[in-house]
Amino acid sequence: MGIMTESVPNQPKMITPAGHVEPVPRRIRGFLGGRAVVDTLRARYVWEWPGYPQYSVPVADLVDCELVDEDRVLKLAPGPARRQGLKAGETVVPDAGWLWAEGASEGLEGTVRFRWEALDAWYEEDEQVFVHPRSPYTRVDALRSGREIRVELDGVVLAEADSSVMVFETGLPTRYYLDRLNVDFTLLLPTDTVTSCPYKGKTSGYWSVETPAGVHDDVVWAYDFPTRQLTPIAGLVAFYNERVDLYLDGELQPRPPTLTRATHEASSGRGSSE
């Protein structure tokens, strides 16, 4: 849910270039096996692509653990780095991240960027952060709106509402969250899909849509217990406007570009190496 699209028409664009580095003015902790292995007040945001940053932390702020050099040099947007494993007690995590080397963007040399999934949990101050760090340059606003909404797929009406909560998130299409009473659930099939967003939290449900033309997988979702900043969407449902026909005040809206993970995966550090 937090994966950014390619350029979205009529939406603010990402302005932070790959390779950019900023200080993190928050205590950052990372946990592995129930204990903190990262505890720092000196983390850096590093943008490996414009969508969102990752944390890079000074090696000196690792706690009761050690890096294991895996003898592989990476060429990433912020500069060169060396692949690292992580050893904490009896726990060994191979391919856990990379140590920035000389020639990396200013402020990165001597810091390590762990893969998000290499640790069990990340915290900013005392609040857990999911999926990736929240970008200081991203806004997510949930605004009530009295504009009429109609959602169709294959010519079948899925929802009609005279109000919604519109969610504006930098770099993403506007999302329209509707009351469940305005949605035809006889056309929806619950699925086991769960996704997470650093700004909204973890989804409580996904649904596919069944029309006479067939089944469209995972088109609808809900956050029953979103983060406190997004409480206006609690219990409401939203549709991927990329995959449905959405009418706003009777006017068909253009479908935004399809979500893509290509850039996100390219930023994972599995790219150019030697």
TrEMBL record:
It comes from the Bacteria. Residues 265-274 have a biased composition (Polar residues). Residues 149-242 form the DUF427 domain. Pfam families: NTP_transf_9 (PF04248). InterPro entries: DUF427, DUF427_sf. Residues 255-274 are annotated as: Disordered. This is DUF427 domain-containing protein.
